[in-house]
Amino acid sequence: MILYQSMRMALKSINSSKIRAFLTMLGIIIGVSSVIILVSVGQGTTSQITEQLNGLGTNQLTINITGRGATTSLTYEEALALGSIEGVQDVAPVISGNVTAKHNTDNVSVAVEGITPSYEDVKDFHVQSGRFLLDIDTEYRQKVALIGTGTAEDLFGTEDPVGQKVQLNGISYKIVGLLETKGSSLGGSNDDKILIPISTAERHLQSKGVRSITIATTSADTVASTKTKLENNLNAKFNNATNAFTVFDSQEMLDTVNSTTNTLSMALAGIAGISLFVGGIGIMNIMIVSVNERTREIGIRKAIGAKKIDILTQFMIESIVLSGLGGIIGVGIGVGGSWIVGKYSPLKISISWNMVLISFVFSLIIGVIFGMMPANKAARLRPIYALRND
Amino acid sequence: MIDSKPLIQVDHMTHGYTMAGEVMTVLKDLSFTIDSGEFVAIIGPSGSGKSTLMNMLGCLDISNEGSYLLDGQEVRKLSDNKLAAIRNDKIGFIFQNFNLLSKLSALENVELPLIYRGLPHRERKQIAREALVSVGLEDRMFHRPSELSGGQQQRVAIARAMAGSPPILLADEPTGALDTRTGQEVLQMIHDLNDQGHTIILITHDLAIAEQAKRIIRIQDGVLVEDRRNVK
User: Fold this and answer.
1) Residue A294 sits in the same domain as residue A180
2) Which of A218, B34, B53, B101 has its CA 20 to 30 A from that of A294?
3) Angle A96-A99-A104 (CA atoms, 0-180°, nearest 5)?
4) How far B162 CA sits from the closest chain A CA (Å)?
5) Domain membership flag for residue A380
6) Residue B1's pLDDT band (cuts 50, 70, 90)
7) pTM as predicted
8) Which residues of chain B neighbour A384 with C-beta distances below 8 Å?
């Protein structure tokens, strides 16, 4: 009964000074809504990155070779030999470098990858017109090339590049295929590059040897065991030198990205949490003012029989109602704001209802904590002092 | 009506406080008893200590020395919460400036002591309504104090004081803020309550009002100087 009565009293006193109540709640409102929006954006970004990583394939391993002393790469043959390891379905070694591509008077600097035909399946790269590279191209060191849509546009404009010639560092290549548009992924643009046979690349690019190998395992389940076998094999090759190579699987990458974005989300939520804390101080401030203003009321209530606990409850509830109301408004703005961000900005959002609940409960707790001191002050007022006060 | 034991028994009550390093003695060795059903006026000029005495009798404060037995119970030994319970149970207050809560309606004001007593909603609404009817405010129940005249506000205060039917009614200058005519109406109500058996303690500085009581206790400089039956 006293709870209900106190609740009504609290709402009444909030209602009678709306602007003051609103300004008091503002800290909590901003805190709760920014926690929700920031975490929503953080989680949205995480899920977006996760999606991209999953798009790379879950049965892939990427080996990056950083070197052992003077030798910093595997030969093409050594790379292909990895295909005989148990669990490896396909090997796509890559020799990469940068060249100046020239067609007529147009010049662009572009990334070139020397590849084998297995690249098509392992990396899931296909041509939209023309043909992919064939074994015969590798075998005879053919000067043929596949071109990405971005580079094609730079060099040929709206012309069909297939069948045309392009000069890479002064050597003429025939374009046999136009790649599909893939957009950007974590590794940068997939459309601004030229693919040539690995054997041709080995000869013509300054960088010798294979530094990057993408391996498709027989299934997603064998990724971990295959990785161990590959590492053992490579360790033997590099005489157990540390940091000679890294083997990356997409799951590992996923974990790294997740933990990074989680840390980031938590940091952002922490900053927003500080705003909640400041909001709590605002509530304490206004509650102290309220207790002072209502000294006489407290005196009257005590004179007619209110116990300490009655007065304490009344002011605690008032503080909790203030912070809880702020929390509810904050949740509304936070959820609405997240929705607007998701709809009208390129950021992806995913509203975490857990976080909504947590931040609301947190705002209530702040009401309890910061209401305690003023309410206790009110409860301890001596009735004669309170009655004398005007 | 009169019990063998007095309702209020004050023995050697002394109270003072220190102000700016000086010890001020406000009540000096007061002793008197009040029986159930009496109508006592405590009179004295301002600064005589009668307000402090009222705080003591109303259990709002505790004297430094002496003893105060209320209904046989030593008030000085009680905790704050026990004192609150006694105020709620045994004492109805009427103040000079009414002391109603401005944000509550007349009915809610009257309900307040019953809330603190822990009565269920329906019962206390019923009692509060009856109390307001008995002071003639049945058509003003949902008005706030600011919408009522001074006389009406004091009647709400009387209804609040009597709603819990406490044995003692403690009135501190109840007519001080009212004009003579409404003041007389309020006094008449207090008389009626005394006739119904309530013990009345009326604190005033006005001899004309004090003369309406059946017994007059005069206080001067914290000392009881006169205690007489008022024979009309």
Assistant:
1) no
2) B53
3) 140
4) 11
5) yes
6) very low
7) 0.72
8) 55, 60-61
Given a cut of 50, the residues of chain A with pLDDT beneath it are none
On whether residue A57 sits in a domain, the answer given is no
Report the amino acid identity of residue A5: Q
Half-sphere exposure in the Cβ direction for A282 (13 Å, CA): 22
DSSP SS3 for A188: strand
Residues A144, A44 share a domain: no
State chain A's maximal CA–CA distance in angstroms.
106
Same domain (yes/no): A380, A281:
yes
B60 in contact with chain A, both atoms CB, cutoff 8 A: yes
Q: Is residue A92 part of a domain?
A: yes
Tokens 């207790």 map to which residue?
Answer: A291
Q: Which residues of B touch A304 (CB under 8 A)?
A: 87-88, 93, 112-113, 116, 160
Q: How many CB atoms lie within 10 A of CB B121?
A: 13
For residue range A37-86, what is the model confidence (pLDDT) as tens digits? 888 888 888 888 777 777 666 677 888 887 766 566 777 778 888 888 88
State yes or no: ipTM above 0.85.
yes
For residue A188, the cross-strand partners are: A185
A154 and A208 both lie in a single domain: yes
Q: Tell whether A280 and A330 lie within a shared domain.
A: yes
Positive or negative: CA dihedral B163, B164, B168, B171:
negative
A15 contacts in B (CB within 8 Å)?
none
Q: Which of B59, B87, B153 to mutate to test the interface with A (most CBs of A within 10 A)?
A: B87
Q: How many Å lie between the alpha carbon of B213 and the closest alpha carbon of chain A?
A: 24
* Domain termination residue (choose one: A186, A214, A242): A214
Please check whether residues A95 and A27 belong to one and the same domain.
Answer: no
> Is the domain of A384 the same as that of A272?
yes
Any chain B CB within 8 A of the CB of A11? no
At the fourth CATH level, the homologous superfamily of domain B37-59+80-229 is: P-loop containing nucleotide triphosphate hydrolases (3.40.50.300)
The total number of structural domains in chain A stands at 2
Q: Quick check: A303 and B89 CB within 8 A?
A: no
* Cα angle value A309/A312/A314 (rounded, 5°): 110
Identify whether residues A40 and A147 lie together within a single domain: no
CB of A294 less than 8 A from some CB of B: no
Q: Does B142 contact A at CB distance below 8 Å? A: no
Q: Residue A77 domain-assigned?
A: no
Range of the domain at A204: 88-214
Distance CA B159, CA B102 (A): 16
Distances (CA, A) of B139 to A376, B129, B144: 39, 10, 12
